[in-house]
Amino acid sequence: MTKLISQRAIASLLSLLGLLVLVFFLSRLTGDPAALFLPIDATEEMKAQFRAINGLDLPLIEQFGRYVWDFIHLDFGESLRKARPAIDVVLEAYAWTFPLALITMALVIVASIVLGALAAFNVGGFFDRLVSIVSLIGASAPDFWIAIVAIVIFSINLAWLPTSGVGTPWHWIMPIGVLFIRPFGLIVQVVRGSMLAALTAPYVKTARAKGVRNLPIIFVHTLRNAMLPVITVIGDQAAAMLNGAVIVETIFGFPGIGKLMIDSILQRDFNVVLAAIMVTAIAIFLMNILIDIAYGLLDPRIRH
Amino acid sequence: MADALLSVQNLSVDFHTVRGTVHAVRNVSWSINRGETLAVLGESGSGKSVSASAVMNILDIPPAQIVGGEILFEGKNLLAMSNEQRRAINGKRIAMIFQDPLSHLNPVYPVGWQISEMMTAHGRPADEARARTLELLGRVGIPEPENAVRKYPHQFSGGQRQRLMIAMALALKPDILIADEPTTALDVTIQADVLALLKELQAETGMGLVLITHDLGVVAEIADRVVVMSNGEIVEQGSVRDVYHAPQHPYTQKLIAAAPGKGDIRILAPDLPVLLEARKLCKVYGRFTALQDVSITLARGQSLAVVGESGSGKSTLARSILRLEEADSGEAFWKGQDLLKMSHRELLGVRRQIQMVFQDPTQSLNPRMSVYQLISEGWDIHNLVPDRAQRQQRVRELLEQVGLSAEHATRYPHQFSGGQRQRIAIARALALEPELIICDEAVSALDVSIQAQVIALLDDLRQRLGISFLFIAHDLGVVRDFADTVIVMKSGEIVERGPTEQIFSAPSHPYTQRLLAAALDPDPDVQAKRRIALAQA
């Protein structure tokens, strides 16, 4: 198990290194960084000055060395827009996105596992059909549309919830609710399918022959076996959320990493974009290691 | 019958499938009391497990549907009870164990927890359940119960897993234990141990034992009465001795006649030219020695049986000779050419001459290829029989040679029975006109009557075409009928070798003696004598 995780950690570090190189070359070699970083109407002197300040006139290898050194110190330069270190701006945004992703995923996982498992046990019945239809709608409905409709209904017509921004717990309800729908729809379907297969497993027969009640058969005997494919999808969905729910955050004016990234790209705040990419990558790599640990915890055959 | 503890009366079960309704069992009746052992004997598809599954409420409904009959337990009809009432009986009053304990134990929970659950599910306190679990593990012969409870099913051997299942089933001292093919997946010596354990525990607890099996030897060893099933119906029932010595129904007669190990022993013709010779083959996987100085000689037209239990290195030997696996050291010669030093091009030519038939045709035949494609694929690889019309003609001939017909060529493997699939696998091997066929447990997965047919087919091919066989098997009866030389392997080494006659009549190595003693004879009187002899020894 320790060996497995350390292997995965090394693989993650290598991927991170790859990403580091890719970002460096994409930002330096696809054109003049001064042209990218500075406004279009910048003069030649301003560009020369910019290159000198940022070391862009140094040989490439030296630039790369500085870049890696800075990365190790989590120094991505200043945010042009906020005149603060880019990393601070990014971490501040993460402080919003992380709890949003965590709460949403926790709700998604609990709801989709319980409903998916019960639907599978009751396959073909009314509850199963209901869950299947709801989850299909959830997995296919466009989130920007749901977000706008939710604002119209809950903020404008009913005036129950604020339209956007943060500040009170009420501000969290709509972003969480809208973010919840798509992964919920998807994961319910995966849980249901995986449970259907696991419920026909011979050990389920054994449990029934032992006189075990239905609920422990579903949630103790079968679910843990059915969780492996589900975890893979959960990881995938959680990664998407850590990337920042760009649309949902933008619509609800939620100051998370997705909104920050869109704003920074639009405002050419390149250092913040780079910092956001790297921090997100680290978060996703860490989460993948957690997923591997979860595999090992769920299945002793992987552990041994 | 009506006052029996458990009685199945006129039970009929249908299975609704996309192809229509299958009458899985029809008017099946049997009964059992405490202390009795009833065997339900039948081949695959006979419906022998269906009535037991109905007793345990583990039929999948749908597709199954109980269309008639009653199951009386202490005079009350189980089929009229609520699910909760039946749940309370399952495990506590009637328990069940299954054929493949690895897949029937939950892979992700420690075995101790799984055994305790049998008791906690029926309201016993957890600490009492834990203590009883340790006691049970000791009773069924699992070493170091304190450590074993924390281990997972995959950390035990096949025989130990079945002991764990037995411990679990007997935790609440049920009145009746239903055992569905409990020893089929086990090696012969372990089968003997498990059956002995079941008998001991039955004597201790006085439970009734319903044993579902396809094996006449198991019936002879353990059962008092037997119910013979065929095509979903009971064709015969009675005491084991009566049914064996005076079978009334033609099906029972056929089944008993097909039991292997009763034919004439073949005598090897002397001075045949040597086809294959292996010297001191060794193969080590990590710390596990699969082959240790194994040497064999196989002559043209000879059939050499390799006998041993799982993990003894039988299959590794075959795979090393075919170079599907590279031996660590040793030599192997095919008609004098060094097999292990051949280039891949030379090897391709030899591989045409040596063909292999595997244990499970369901897995070894590609389900998406038609029979024609399966049989002719080898010709593409070896650039043989280029003409299309000629190919079709050859496929027809091959199918007829193995007892199938020309129209089968366009069908797919799933449209055949197990025995027919193995015939297709044999036709595929014959297509390349091999001089040696390696059969790796080629008849083990087949029903007894079909096994006899396949053995007869192989025998016929040997006589007509002069093909040699390397015959890997664990079933001594089959080996006795088919081989003319036997080698016995244990832990990667050959412990004994000799003509079949000598191995079976005068085995010299203690392991061979143990193997032969553990093999079950279909004749209940022979088994009874062996039991007495064993008890005296």
In short:
Chain A has about 300 residues and is mainly alpha-helical. Helices cover about 80% and strands about 0% of the residues of chain A.
What would CATH call the homologous superfamily of the largest domain in chain B? P-loop containing nucleotide triphosphate hydrolases
Radius of gyration of chain B: 25 Å
Query: Distance between the terminal alpha carbons of chain B, to the nearest Å?
Result: 39 Å
Main sheet attributes: strand count, strand direction, barrel closure of chain B: 6 strands, mixed
What proportion strand of chain A?
under 5%
Describe the structure.
The complex is a heterodimer of chains A (304) and B (537). Chain A has 2 domains: 2-72, no CATH class; 91-267, MetI-like fold. Helices cover 79% and strands 0% of the residues of chain A. Chain A is mainly α and 304 residues long. Chain A has helices at residues 2-29, 33-37, 44-54, 60-72, 86-121, 126-140, 143-157, 170-199, 202-210, 214-242, 246-251, 257-266, 270-298, 300-303. In chain A, helix 5 runs antiparallel to helix 6 and helix 9 packs across helix 10. Chain B is an alpha/beta fold and 537 residues long. Chain B folds into 2 domains: 35-58 and 87-258, P-loop containing nucleotide triphosphate hydrolases (Rossmann fold); 274-506, P-loop containing nucleotide triphosphate hydrolases (Rossmann fold, 3-Layer(aba) Sandwich). Chain B has 22 helices and 20 strands. Chain B has a 6-stranded mixed sheet with strand order 6-7-8-3-9-10. A 6-stranded mixed sheet of chain B has the order 16-17-18-13-19-20, sandwiched between helices. A 4-stranded antiparallel sheet of chain B has the order 2-1-4-5, covered by helices on one side. In chain B, strand 14 and strand 15 form a beta hairpin. Chain B is globular and about 70 Å long. The model of chain B has no long low-confidence stretch (mean pLDDT 86). At the A-B interface, helix 9 and helix 10 of A face helix 2 of B.
